[in-house]
Structures are given as C-alpha cells and as structure tokens.
Structure to design on (309 residues):
C-alpha cells in the first residue's frame, strides 16, 4: 500500500492525470502560502561564513534529480574533500562520520543509503551525515578537509556556498502540497543551473548482467531508469530509501524465475550483505569542462578568502 501511494504522489507531482490536476488546483492556495513562507524565510536568513569552501548540489523539487552521481563526479576530482548530507532514511540521529581516512566506520543502516554510496565510491573523501549541516561542515574542516560538497543544500540559506541547481522538468509547477516545488530560485539568490545534455551526460553500464533479471529498486521516480534498462523479467518498485529484507528479495527471484536482481548502486549498498545474485546498473556522469572550471575557481577564491579571514 505504501509503495502504491508513493507512486501516486510521484505521478501527481511530475506527470499528473486529470484527477490529480484537479487536486493540485484545489490545493493551489496552500501551495502559494507555503512558497510565500519559504520566500520570507530566505529573506530573513543571515548568511554566515563557512570555514572552508562549500559547494552545494541541490534542486528545487522533492524527489530524485541525480544529485548523488553529480556530487560523486565532482568530489572525486579532489583530495582532502568531504561530502556532508542529512542521511535520509538512516536509523541513527545526530552527527556521524561515515568514512574517514581509516575507512568506513558504520553500516548502511546507521549511515543511510546515499551516504554509503559516497563512502564506497569516494575512498579519498570524508563522509559525514548530520541534520545540522553547519556542524557537519565544521567537523570536516576539523578533520583537515579543504572543501565540502553539500548534498541537497540549496535550502540551507544560512551557509555561505556555491549553489549548483539541477534542473528538473515537471508538468506541475506548483509548490507543496499542490506540486513538487520546495522553493523557488529567489530574487537575490545566486545559483548556477546545471542541465543534463549541457553540463553533464549520463554514462551507464550493467555490471554482472545475466540472461534473466528482475529490476528491484527503491529510488524516487524510478521511471528515470527506463531509458537505460534492458528487457527485464519484472519491475519491482519500493518506496525511496526502503531497506530490503532477504525474504522479499528471494521471493522476487522465485516469482520471476530470474537469475539475478538488477539494482542501482543505491539499492546494492542495502542488499549486498545478503549475497544474493545481483547485477548492477551503474551510473556515472561525464562533466562539461566549463562546470568543473567554475567549481575549481570557486574553491580557489573561497580558500584564499577563508585563509585570510
């Protein structure tokens, strides 16, 4: 039931049918009020200096937009770097260092799936989860990091940072709860739009492909995977950040008669300990040199400013 509701909400936000458009219209006054409150919050927030350069990768809407692969592609270019994120779906609270120079320090239930992706894909980085992003940034600086990549940080207006905003297309342009928008690009807010096909290209490969595979995924808006999928025996969608059980995965293999589960890296980090047959739909990004040059320039200038502060 939860999975069906999640899928209904995703369609309502991004590709509404006539009934969902009516629901959105009825909720439009609440959406306008929500956005007005977010606008007021932005204009009443004081920006505080960051101890080291911070680059935020975010978007204006709820749901998946490809932040994790973009953070990974940017952060892997640097040494002495940290990734700081909230850690949605984790079974812990407060600030946790997920990875430091010695290796991974906790399991995926304590870190959350996205943080564990960074911990596995960025061996040179410090990975920190914290509801308080400023505390996470301060810890990164204390651990010797020279820059921080902030996952989903646009709304943290009090943090001095370079904002990169991934453009997400939606047929519903309203604010919550009438639409998917958490915020707008407010007047007076400097941000750099990042667009697929201009600033990055997706590169996918299937590692360990088998003849008969079942797609199993717990990501937001799983229809985003469709252009990259081979023919599969079945599609099994779970709510975003869902923690799988061995029984439900073994049941899918039996039901579909599959040789392997086809999963994203976000799913893989939560099921690899089961040692079930899996094939990995791995996604990387090829970045435009203009984007990386802008990030390099920001880090260089901000590092000089922070050094003299």
């Amino acid at each position: 039931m939860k999975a069906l509701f999640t899928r209904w909400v995703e369609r309502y936000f991004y590709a509404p049918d006539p009934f969902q458009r009516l629901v959105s219209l009825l909720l439009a006054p609440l959406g306008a009020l929500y956005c007005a409150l977010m606008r007021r919050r932005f204009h009443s927030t004081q920006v505080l200096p960051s101890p080291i350069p911070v680059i935020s990768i975010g978007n204006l809407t709820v749901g998946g937009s490809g932040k994790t692969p973009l953070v990974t592609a940017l952060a892997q270019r640097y040494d002495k770097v940290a990734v700081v994120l909230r850690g949605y779906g984790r079974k812990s609270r407060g600030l946790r260092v997920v990875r430091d120079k010695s290796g991974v320090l906790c399991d995926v239930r304590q870190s959350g799936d996205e943080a564990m992706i960074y911990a596995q894909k960025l061996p040179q980085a410090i990975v920190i989860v914290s509801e308080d992003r400023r505390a996470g940034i301060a810890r990164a600086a204390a651990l010797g990091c020279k820059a921080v990549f902030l996952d989903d940080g646009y709304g943290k207006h009090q943090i001095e940072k370079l904002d990169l905003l991934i453009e997400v297309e939606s047929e519903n342009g309203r604010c919550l709860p009438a639409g998917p928008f958490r915020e707008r690009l407010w007047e007076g807010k400097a941000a750099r739009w990042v667009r697929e096909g201009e600033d990055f290209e997706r590169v996918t490969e299937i590692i360990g492909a088998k003849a008969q595979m079942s797609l199993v995924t717990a990501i937001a808006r799983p229809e985003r995977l469709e252009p990259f999928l081979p023919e599969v025996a079945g599609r099994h969608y779970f709510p975003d950040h869902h923690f799988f059980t061995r029984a439900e995965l073994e049941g899918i293999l039996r039901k579909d008669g599959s040789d392997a589960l086809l999963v994203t890296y976000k799913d893989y980090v939560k099921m690899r300990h089961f040692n079930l047959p899996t094939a990995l739909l791995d996604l990387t990004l090829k970045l435009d040199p203009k984007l990386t040059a802008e990030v390099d320039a920001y880090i260089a200038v901000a590092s000089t400013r922070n050094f003299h502060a």
Remarks:
- The longest helix spans residues 289-308.
- DSSP finds ten helices and 13 strands in the chain.
- The first strand starts at residue 54 and ends at 58.
